[in-house]
Amino acid sequence: MEVILKMKKYNYTKIFFFIFALSVLSINAQDIFTKDDHFFGTKDNFVKSCIDGAKKKTINLKGIDINMTKYCSCVCDNLIPSLYLNEITTALEQGKLMELFLNDENFNILMSCVDGNFEIEDDYEFKDENQTELTKTIQIKQCVNEILSSDDDNTWNTEMASEYCTCAMERLYSKGFTYKDLLDIENEDSESFNEIVMPCLNEMASSFEKNAIVLENSYNVEDIIGSPTSSKIKLIEYINQGYKIKVDIDGVIKYFLFDTGASDLIINRDIERELLINGSLKKEHYKGKEIYTLADNTQVEADMVILNNIKIGDYTLNNVYCAIMENGSLLCGKGFFDKFKSWEFSKVNKEILVYK
Hints:
Layout: H1 2-5, H2 10-24, H3 43-54, E1 58-60, E2 64-67, H4 68-78, H5 85-94, H6 97-101, H7 104-114, E3 118-120, H8 133-150, H9 158-174, H10 179-183, H11 191-211, E4 224-225, E5 230-234, E6 236-237, E7 243-249, E8 252-259, E9 265-268, H12 269-277, E10 286-293, E11 299-307, E12 310-312, E13 315-317, E14 320-325, E15 331-333, E16 342-346, E17 351-355
Parallel strand pairs: 8-15, 9-14
Antiparallel strand pairs: 1-2, 2-3, 4-13, 5-17, 6-7, 7-8, 7-12, 9-15, 10-11, 11-14, 12-13, 16-17
């Protein structure tokens, strides 16, 4: 949420100017040096050619005043000298000049030339008629770049930012918002915040929740090797603190505290190292990270891994999700037993009965 609120107002407005300015930029006036020192002529001629394409030194697009002289001069000083002759000629021959300009590095240069070279009136209205597929592509690209560059906590990825930005641009143009509305988008009581930011955040969250990969154990009879029916797992009473349970992870034998309040099988970094050394744990077994809330309500991040050849009772289990915590205790949570068809805990008999 904080990342979105920090989005700059020019995310939308300077893009509109950029599209127009890009459309009138003429490469035919070979007036500068390329990156590989090919002479293209003088800066004056290049800037004149660029301005001639726009017809005026300053133009007005329904409420947006553009200083083409400064923009063209910036492009001449910064973009063309960063390109190789072969890049430009190949792009022209293949009709892919726009694609060349939209490469990340070139795109950033052009966007820097936009800053400070336009003025926009408060009543300027964002309309569908001003948005083409090209403008939409560039708007989303700049929006994504802004979010990712402002995301100090690394909570966004490119896919998330792209989905949000696509939604935000569509709402900005379809609902007739003005530039004045856009200036107020950080205000949580404003129409633009509640009609653009909130719906798009909710839509994005719903989409990712629906498609999220859940890292939790589930029953699959193919993952269970052993008795065709059931097995009893004896528990060891642990000084009035509960019970311990013997678990053999591919030859690494440890005694885990049976904790009905825990959700998974949890190991620490020492056990992780043992499993890495004997080859039981490899790079491809790491499946992401999860946040766990401890008994004291503190939250810790854990690495989630898939473990195989786990022996418990008379069974051997494969494809078991396990959490690795920096200084975690060895815990065997009830979620671990979700690998079985069903299970029962008998406090009287000090055992767990699992069914295949």
